[in-house]
């Protein structure tokens, strides 16, 4: 996998001399501003000399500031630094909007770079062939399980989101051949879900996990769709951290729909009208 320029700058910034580190931090966090700046303006903004900017450019393989900017444009489309930009109490709504969108785009870009399509294909194959799918998750990942339940049911699949420890244990212990246990876990280290996977496999069910690739849950699974987790989420969980799991669900749904011969595989049949009573736009009331 090719590492983007911005990612390289982020990765190597801590090893740079102090003055160059200021340049690196500004370039990595405000690349669009850098594209509009002269070298003199960047030097002034970072409180460094022009030779410092040139040394920074050469450190990353560019013989001029303009060459750096040209490559920076290429890095921004479509790549982006896979960093979480923390929202702080002093941020106004404009920063909240900008940072939320950027964090989400960064998360999606990371998924596009890292995800292995063959894992989606294999997971979709087992899900489509399953006689029943139990969908397991805990904590904030429960919303992913409910989302998957809704979408799979729209495809006509027999499935159920299983939330709560006792309920999960009961269903996993009664799992049998022909069934699939689909497990969502960002870290892949949650003991309850690893035990669920072990119980389901003992009963003969296939286990598909959407989790960190190098994790206990991944090692307990027949198929792992590896999604890199955000770092250090034991105490605080970024709001964008489950976005990629939703996207993986959509990929599985679409792959199953294509295999089933759907004319519009990336769309789901609307809910029955009696379940969603709509207001007639021509009704003046």
Strands, helices and their partners?
Blueprint: H1 5-12, H2 18-29, H3 31-34, H4 39-46, H5 50-59, H6 65-76, H7 93-114, H8 117-129, E1 132-136, H9 142-154, E2 159-162, H10 165-173, E3 179-184, H11 191-202, E4 206-211, H12 216-219, E5 223-226, H13 243-259
Parallel strand pairs: 1-2, 1-3, 3-4, 4-5
Helix pairs in contact: 1-2, 2-5, 8-13, 9-13, 10-11
Any overview of this molecule?
The N and C termini lie far apart (58 Å). The protein is built from 13 helices and five strands. The radius of gyration is 23 Å and the shape is elongated. It has helices spanning 5-12, 18-29, 31-34, 39-46, 50-59, 65-76, 93-114, 117-129, 142-154, 165-173, 191-202, 216-219, 243-259; strands spanning 132-136, 159-162, 179-184, 206-211, 223-226. The chain has 285 residues and is of the alpha/beta class. Helix 9 (142-154) runs parallel beside helix 13 (243-259) and helix 10 packs parallel to helix 11. The chain has two domains: 5-76, Winged helix-like DNA-binding domain superfamily/Winged helix DNA-binding domain (Arc Repressor Mutant, subunit A, Orthogonal Bundle); 116-259, Glucose-6-phosphate isomerase like protein, domain 1 (Rossmann fold, 3-Layer(aba) Sandwich), CATH 3.40.50.10490.
């Amino acid at each position: 996998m090719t590492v983007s320029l911005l990612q390289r700058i982020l990765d190597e910034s801590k090893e740079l001399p102090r003055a160059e580190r200021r340049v690196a931090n500004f370039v990595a966090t405000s690349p669009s501003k850098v594209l509009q700046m002269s070298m003199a303006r960047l030097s002034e903004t970072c409180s460094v000399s022009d030779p410092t900017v040139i040394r920074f450019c050469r450190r990353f393989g560019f013989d001029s500031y303009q060459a750096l900017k040209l490559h920076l444009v290429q890095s921004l489309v479509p790549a982006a630094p896979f960093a979480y930009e923390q929202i702080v109490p002093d941020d106004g709504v404009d920063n909240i909007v900008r940072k939320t969108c950027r964090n989400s785009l960064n998360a999606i870009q990371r998924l596009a770079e890292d995800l292995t399509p063959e894992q989606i294909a294999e997971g979709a194959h087992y899900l489509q062939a399953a006689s029943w799918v139990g969908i397991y998750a805990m904590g904030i990942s429960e919303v992913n399980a409910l989302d998957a339940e809704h979408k799979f049911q729209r495809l006509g699949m027999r499935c159920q989101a299983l939330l709560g420890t006792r309920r999960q244990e009961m269903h996993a212990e009664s799992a049998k051949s022909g069934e699939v246990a689909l497990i969502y876990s960002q870290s892949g280290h949650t003991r309850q879900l690893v035990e669920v996977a072990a119980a389901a496999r003992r009963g003969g069910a296939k286990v598909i996990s959407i989790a960190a690739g190098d994790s206990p849950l991944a090692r307990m699974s027949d198929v792992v769709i590896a999604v890199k987790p955000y770092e250090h989420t034991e105490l605080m969980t970024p709001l964008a951290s489950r976005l990629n799991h939703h996207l993986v669900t959509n990929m599985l749904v679409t792959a199953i729909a294509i295999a089933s011969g759907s004319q519009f595989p990336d769309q789901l049949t609307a809910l029955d009208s009696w379940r969603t009573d709509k207001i007639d736009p021509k009704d003046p009331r």
